[in-house]
Design brief:
Elements lengths: L7 E6 L8 E9 L2 E8 L21 H4 L4 H13 L25 E3 L6 E11 L14 E8 L8 E2 L4 H4 L3 H7 L2 E9 L10 E6 L6 E4 L18 H4 E4 L5 E2 L4 E10 L9 E7 L8 E4 L4 E7 L8 E7 L7 E7 L1
Parallel strand pairs: 1-9, 2-10, 12-18
Antiparallel strand pairs: 2-3, 3-5, 4-5, 6-7, 6-8, 8-9, 11-13, 13-16, 14-15, 14-17, 17-18
């Protein structure tokens, strides 16, 4: 069990994009397994009675063109949306892109009475204990994202910052280049955390209209508020150090550091972070923090003169600056 003051579900209102075209059903099936089913709205409004002007549909009614008997259809097929894809190889997160194996191409759903009509566009699974997901991908302090393409097809979940750390571009820009967008992100505070310890961010244009999330603990609703910039490590966590940091020229300094939540509460799960600097020598770049969030950074002011500054960054494998600070050579 990991203390996370931001655990649960919160929604970010993003009027800059028409998320109403998309719908999702997210289900936590087991303590460490999550299924994401995606739907896409091909029409902003139901077609007029009698069908569109295309001769293929001439004379057809709405019910003949789309299955709009929402409750019956959902009751019959709901397990297909809330259980893992049969294509998921050992729960690695492979997406089911061919939902018409289960459903006819004309099967559609309304999730709100008299609301928009969505077609099923596939699903994927996130399993925190998958044997095929790399240790560094499911790292301590990870943001796992579920992008969809312009037709609503779901892609396998991914570490949001894994690619951005390589090419030094923000994740939204990478998604834009790939013609993808994200509705749903999971913040995993530690490798040992369960999904009940995690934070879930939903992006939408109209609050509550286009995503359902099914959690074992139904009492968790929206325990914290966010803006678009909060869902990143330095917005949720602090690295605390002594107010004044110095190191004698040519000598070793041992600097205590503490990882805390942004609200000041203790990060109570042991995690492993990394230390990087612009100069000086770090004998061990691995920073091991105990169950009080406490650890030590050792830095040697090797070949540095009095008055120079060492800039240190603390992060994980994919996000290099959860915290940063300067040390003055004296």
């Amino acid at each position: 069990m990991t203390h996370n003051p931001y655990k649960g579900v919160t929604r970010f209102l993003d009027p800059g994009f028409n998320y109403e075209q998309y719908y999702a059903v997210v289900t936590v099936n087991e303590p460490n397994k999550l299924t994401y089913a995606s739907f896409f709205c091909e029409h902003t409004q139901p077609p007029p009675e009698g069908g569109p002007t295309d001769p293929l549909y001439e004379g057809m009614t709405i019910n003949e063109m789309w299955d709009t008997t929402q409750s019956a259809a959902n009751a019959a097929f709901w397990t297909e949306f809330t259980t893992q894809s049969i294509y998921d190889n050992m729960n690695i997160g492979v997406s089911d892109f061919t939902p018409n194996i289960y459903f006819t191409n004309l099967l559609r759903f309304r999730f709100v009475e008299n609301g928009l009509i969505y077609r099923y566009a596939g699903k994927t699974t996130l399993s925190l204990n998958s044997t095929l997901i790399g240790d560094n991908e499911l790292d301590d302090i990870v943001f796992f994202d579920f992008p969809v393409d312009k037709d609503g097809r779901i892609y396998g979940g991914r570490n949001m910052y894994a690619q951005s750390s390589i090419i030094k571009a923000f994740a939204p820009r990478i998604y834009a280049l790939e013609n993808l967008r994200s509705m749903f992100t999971v913040f995993i505070p530690a490798k040992t955390a369960n999904l009940s310890d995690c934070s879930f961010l939903i992006r939408e244009a109209v609050v509550g209209d286009n995503i359902q999330i099914n959690l074992p603990d139904t009492s968790v609703v929206s325990p914290f508020t966010v803006d678009n910039s909060l869902f990143s490590p330095p917005r949720m966590l602090n690295i605390i150090t002594p107010a004044t940091l110095t190191v004698p020229s040519g000598e070793l300094a041992v600097i205590p550091v503490t990882l805390q939540w942004k609200d000041g509460s203790t990060f109570d799960t042991p995690v492993e972070l990394w230390v990087d600097s612009n100069q000086g020598f770090i004998p061990n770049a691995h920073l091991l923090l105990n169950n009080q969030g406490q650890g030590y950074v050792r830095i040697i002011a090797l070949d540095l003169a009095v008055g120079e500054n060492i800039h240190l960054k603390i992060g994980n494998n994919h996000y290099t600056t959860i915290g940063e600070f300067d040390i003055t050579v004296v």
